Amino acid sequence: MLKIDTVIPDTTSAVTVPDDIGYISIYQFTSTTADEFNDVFKTMLSKKPIGIILDLRDNPGGYLDAAYRILGHFIAKGKTIMNLKMDGNVLPQLSEGAGEFAAAGIPLMILVNDGTASASEVVAGALQDYKIGRLLGETTFGKGTVQEVTTYTDGSLFKLSIAHWLTPLKRDINKVGLTPDIVLVRTKDDVLNKTDTQLTRAIQELQK
After folding, report:
1. Which of 95, 120, 143, 190 is catalytic?
2. Angle separating helix axes 64-71 and 119-129, nearest 10 degrees
3. Residue 20 neighbours by CB distance under 10 Å
């Protein structure tokens, strides 16, 4: 089974992912996520799956740098991966990656829900804008601000919003979120982890 979770343990026990489909779940963008993803992604591509599922459900975000580096695997160097809006100016943030996924010609499904926020929306929005993959699930949280965090010696934190971000196509998702290409709301059984209709549908889409 080409199913590798990063950051969190297996959360897909309700559904068996077929051997020929790759699965990557990212719970949060931490300082190690980009390196983990790099290793997992290379291994997965070498196995030539018929499709890949990127699970960003309930991912609250994290380090933008990690999101940028992960997008570099999908979007070629020099292309815009997101736009920062500061003091009325829009500053494109460019990919520094190889964008090797495009050459592989593998379909991609991205799972999202109302817990998909911030940096995870940056990734999902870019992949949707470039039509690299299709979003499936529920409308995302809609956090379009960039915050600077200051840590004090007593352990307290101070967060300051320093910028607004837009997708590569300059869509403003703040307080609106990303609308999936395939909208599929979780059922009661999904919430109880008895089923996972979103993951099941993603598998079906890749098997078409």
Report:
1. 143
2. 20
3. 14
Spatial distance between the Cα atoms of 78 and 95, rounded to a whole number of angstroms? 5
Q: Is 190 a catalytic residue?
A: no
Question: Catalytic: which of 25, 58, 85, 118?
Answer: 118
The parts of the chain modelled with pLDDT lower than 50 are 1-11
143 is catalytic: yes
- Record the pTM: 0.89
42 is catalytic: no
DSSP assignment letter at 26: E
3-207: CATH class:
alpha beta
**What tens digit of pLDDT does each residue of 116-136 get?**
999 999 999 999 999 999 999
Distance CA 58, CA 105 (A): 28
